[in-house]
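Milestone M4 deliverable, item 7.
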Amino acid sequence: MKFSELGLSSDLLQALDYMGFEKATPVQEQAIPAILSNQDLLACAQTGTGKTAAFILPILNKLVGKEDSKINTLIIVPTRELALQIDKEIQGLSYFVSVGSMAIYGGGDGAGFNEQKAALVEGRDIIVATPGKLLSHLNLGYVNFDHVQHLILDEADKMLDMGFHDDLHKIISYLPKKRQNLLFSATMAPKMHALARKILHSPKEIRLSISKPAAGIAQGVYFVFDEQKDKVLVHSLEERKEYTSIILFTSSKDKVYQITRMLHTKGFKAKGISSNLDQEEREEVLRKFRSKRIPILVATDVLSRGIDIKDINLVINYDVPMDAEDYVHRIGRTARANTKGEAITLVNPKDMRRFKSIENLIEKEVPVLKVPEEFGETPKYEVGKSKPKRKFHRKPKGKPKKSN
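Output delivered:
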């Protein structure tokens, strides 16, 4: 379906045409008319489906001709990267529409805090915020949400996973009871349903099936013991020295910097990114990665949903993600826009059951990659046994028998 068939204003259609967008994605086809008709919405849609534009476009359409600067729309997201990404998309789509927005997030300096405070006091049409930082401002007493008409929770499942349940409900207590509520999530776990029941009123539901990894992604898995991971990682990178854009996902902030240091000792140019860095440092790392000045980026799952970087050659899962859906998010960073890419996962014995859940989700057995023999024995892929046996390669005892 074309955007021109969805009831959007000529100004927005002009902006879309200017940006080269003509056809709506499935989530946009279903969400835009519902939002324009003021329905609450519960949408299950993954990163890469166009869900951000699915809620930004109809909100911008409603704001055309708005004369005051009072806060009209509040968008809450789990990470500052996603807040900045959405704010940037608002600015792009509102090129021909007079709409102001501001991203509210932590990690900045005093000047950044004062700029955020000014936006909340003086008003912006759209506020995009992370829960913790927004609560800091709310607790200081100068934020006025009396005129908010739209509440949008994006990546709501991720916010619940990160422990923001109570923060979300406290923020919502500051909002008018009469408003439109839009809840977007990549998964529909029971806790998501509980949240939806509390804040949504007779919502329209959109359920796009969990998308499988793009056909252009060549997936592979190494079954290894923990002590072999670094060797296999270095081996994989040495085989792909022509790659200029690689993301490596690991399970913790501490591992981010351990792996980065190890790669430096092996001669690889890599940078780690986590919440340990302040916002300016994180943005600088991402700028260098986008411009290919840094070929390898080591990160936690905070990055799997919160960035949009094109032309990534390879995604490496140093650790298996906790949730099977996060595997799809992680490797979805590569092979975007019909390009090709690779995804490699390192699986130790304790993560085999988790990896089997991933294969069940994507309905595919991931091809097993051979670990070089000089790296020693490897575990056998056995789900259901807590400690898979090691495979020992022993030479037969005694002299070999002569053949007849």
